[in-house]
Amino acid sequence: MKTIKTFAKTFPLAALVSATAFASAEAHVSFLDKEASQESTILATLQLPHGCDGKATTEVRVKLPEGFVFAKPQPKAGWELEVIKGDYQKTYDNHGDKVKSGAVEIRWKNGNLSDDFYDTFVIQGKVSGVEAGTSLAFPVIQMCGDAVAAWDQVAKDGSDPHGMKSPAPLLKVVAGDSHGHDHDMAGMDMTGMGGMAAAAPAGETVKAGDLEISAGFAKAMLPGQPVGGGFFTVKNSGQTDDRLLSVTSPVSGEVQIHAMETKDNVMRMRQLKDGIAVAAGETVKLEPGKMHLMFQKVKTPFKQGDTVPVTLTFEKAGKVDLVLQVVSAQGK
């Protein structure tokens, strides 16, 4: 049954108590689309309809089942992102490459989703090596400060768990067509997370004092992709340190500066609220898989061949206008 776990100061997890507080919940954590075709790459959209007995949700952990591979999570404004990697039980083919490991758990952390609101958490991944008719279970841990709701019950026969109080979200695998859908999402890069990026065509070069900003580009956004990624290089030829403080764009409601880092096989993304230091005599690159711009609330999805205007605000050099060239989602 569904449980609430209370954290004590002296123990990682203290006493388990009854889940009756959750009995009034109107809906379970579930997927927006509950079916996926064999050998297709999809956006698995997890629906989170409520908090924990009125408490705001602060963390969401999703364990990925075998057969859901090459996973990349959608970053969310106001949340930190952690990707835990491990070995697969089998070897999977990724466009000719044999892959034996990847993301096995996704965590959105340090957020604040009020019980009054509803939200979704999205993971791009491929359904591979799974027989039609099989249901893949994605156990979810929903944390609300010192309370935890475990959505992890799975029927023994893999069927829809009617009557269960805390069922794990299920994704039913159906027979794929002859072409599949993998080409629809193949190579999609959520703000440049993961994958090898081919050299991008350089955009215009702009000078502001001792700074030279060049090689600006953005990735094309595919259907269903909620955020865009932007990249460029800053060279400081002077003798005074500077700092990129913020970025704005007329085509996006908000532009954040983010960084990716991997430690102990765990990949984390964090927002750089203090900007990026550009030391005297140094060159700083924003590139896929590392530091990058994240365009939120994009008015029109970026298309290859378009341009994305941005305004960079530096501590010393002031405001600098730059145009990013939109390249393909695969970075070619």
UniProtKB/TrEMBL annotation:
Keywords: Signal. Pfam families: DUF1775 (PF07987), PCuAC (PF04314). Residues 28-173 form the YncI copper-binding domain. It comes from the Bacteria. The keyword Signal applies. InterPro entries: LpqE-like (IPR007410), Lxx211020-like (IPR058248), PCuAC_sf (IPR036182), UCP037139 (IPR021174), YcnI-copper_dom (IPR012533), YcnI-like_sf (IPR038507). SUPFAM superfamilies: DR1885-like metal-binding protein (SSF110087). This is YncI copper-binding domain-containing protein. The lineage of its organism: Bacteria, Pseudomonadati, Pseudomonadota, Alphaproteobacteria, Hyphomicrobiales.
